[in-house]
UniProtKB/TrEMBL annotation:
Residues 1-248 form the CN hydrolase domain. It comes from Roseateles albus. InterPro entries: C-N_Hydrolase (IPR003010), C-N_Hydrolase_sf (IPR036526), Nit1/2_C-N_Hydrolase (IPR045254), UPF0012_CS (IPR001110). This is Carbon-nitrogen hydrolase family protein. Belongs to the carbon-nitrogen hydrolase superfamily. NIT1/NIT2 family. The keyword Hydrolase applies. Keywords: Hydrolase. It comes from the Bacteria. Signal peptide: none annotated. PANTHER family: DEAMINATED GLUTATHIONE AMIDASE, NITRILASE-RELATED. Pfam families: CN_hydrolase. GO terms for molecular function: hydrolase activity.
Length: 266
């Protein structure tokens, strides 16, 4: 199965971001992709964290602009579409869920995962807390996308291996992200390859990758990684799409030759 990961440098204009995402989805489909994944916050990288509140949608509303674009693109292009993340309303005022919605080739929503682990840091001179605007999700999610069992996760979730263990075994781990430049440079590839190796699964990691209008710089390095930890495709920076063929025979061979998943005791 050929899969594609899209890298974007999203800004504060929702309409522009949606048009750019659709462009790259069409490009991926033209190159034969059957499953395509968009990055975290593909629809909006606002000038302030609270900007996402203004474009938040009700979950399951196929007529809302962001969800409509994703559903329509999946149906018109015949794709399994992992829709990065979008802000969806919660019952808490001033909070949204950072939700990854997956669409089947008929345009129907096949799964929704709400980011469970919220990023926070404080180095003494700078601080940031996603929890000021986001409400954490509360349940791991995996789905069957054609021949693939896919584990869903988002960005900071990558640092919590127990999330993937709870869903395994899976064939593909999805990690849409907007990693900061500093943490991405230090840990992004290291963590992605570790998750691939320890779960003996392919990893698809579409990312934000460049300097955004809000002044933030994201690491990029959108990757597709095989179950032995080999990087099959990588786009360091800027917008674009990378593709790779997921070989189920290769996956089975890795698990047969080194049956680590069968050796688990905990």
């Amino acid at each position: 199965m050929k899969v594609a990961a899209v890298q974007m440098v999203s800004g504060p204009d929702l309409a522009v971001n949606l048009a750019r995402a659709r462009h790259w989805l069409e490009e991926a489909a033209a190159q034969g992709a059957e499953l395509v994944a968009l990055p975290e916050y593909f629809c909006l990288m606002g000038l302030a964290d609270s900007d996402k509140l203004a474009v938040a949608e009700q979950g399951g509303d196929s007529h809302a602009p962001i969800q409509h674009m994703l559903s329509q693109a999946a149906a018109e292009l015949g794709l399994w579409l992992i829709g990065g993340t979008i802000p969806l309303h919660t019952v808490q005022a001033g909070r949204v869920r950072n939700a990854c919605c997956v669409y089947a080739p008929d345009g129907a929503e096949a799964a929704r995962y709400d980011k469970m682990h919220l990023f926070r840091f404080d180095n003494g001179s700078e601080s940031y807390d996603e929890g000021r605007v986001l409400e954490a999700g509360d349940a791991p999610v995996a789905l069957q996308a054609g021949p693939l069992r896919v584990a869903l996760s988002v960005c900071y979730d990558l640092r919590f291996p127990e999330l993937y263990r709870s869903l395994g075994p899976v064939d593909l781990i999805s990690v849409p992200a907007a990693f900061t430049y500093v943490t991405g440079q230090a840990h992004w590839e290291l963590l992605l390859r570790a998750r691939a190796v320890e779960n003996q699964a392919y990893v698809i990691a579409p990312a934000q990758g460049g300097l955004h209008q809000n002044g933030r710089r994201t690491w990029g390095h959108t990757m597709i990684i095989d179950p032995w930890g080999e990087v099959l495709a990588c786009l360091p920076e800027g917008e674009g799409v990378v593709l790779a063929e997921l070989d189920m025979a290769r996956l089975a061979a890795v698990r047969r030759q080194l049956p680590a998943l069968q050796h688990r005791r905990l």
